[in-house]
TrEMBL record:
Source organism of this protein record: Butyrivibrio hungatei
Protein name as it appears in the record: Tetrapyrrole methylase family protein / MazG family protein
Pfam families, per database record: MazG
Domain NTP pyrophosphohydrolase MazG-like: 29-106
Domain of life: Bacteria
């Protein structure tokens, strides 16, 4: 793995864990079985932010962001195994979105006021979601499920 980026290294590790000779627990994981892990890791990132704000110590935040990235990589590797998408696709999707939503940074577009900037951002987001408005219908159920998973984990 010499001269390999750390992202590539992480992907190779997850692929190895899920391989024939890998870890039985890691091989058995699915998108659904990893839901609680995503919630827990996101909450631990928030804890890391709180620690940083209170103490100035960034080590916990760095570790917890890594754990959250592991969740993203895990889901991406599973999706790749299923022929759905890759980690590169995930990274490209979010990079494209950031460039699209910030034309004032990545193109010659200029806004006179912050209000214009926010209105443009909202319009860009609205256009992105056009025809997919129904996706938002899943959010209340997802929040409810997240709370239920947390309650079960704490019981």
């Amino acid at each position: 793995m010499k001269n390999t980026s750390q992202i590539d290294r992480l992907k190779q590790i997850v692929e190895t864990l899920r391989s024939e000779n890998g870890c039985p627990w890691d091989k058995a994981q699915t998108h659904a079985s990893l839901k609680l892990g995503c919630i827990e890791e996101a909450a631990e990132v928030i804890g890391g932010i709180n620690i940083l704000e209170e103490t100035g110590d960034a080590e916990n935040l760095k570790e917890e962001l890594g754990d959250l990235l592991l969740q993203v990589m895990f889901h991406s590797v599973i999706a790749e195994e299923e022929g759905l998408f890759t980690f590169e696709d995930v990274a490209k999707t979010v990079a494209d979105k950031m460039e699209r939503r910030h034309p004032h940074v990545f193109t010659d577009v200029k806004f006179e006021t912050e209000e214009e900037l926010h209105a443009a951002w909202a319009e860009i987001k609205r256009k992105e979601k056009e025809g997919k408005e129904w996706h938002a219908d899943y959010l209340p159920g997802a929040f409810k499920e997240a709370h239920e998973l947390i309650d079960r984990a704490q019981a």
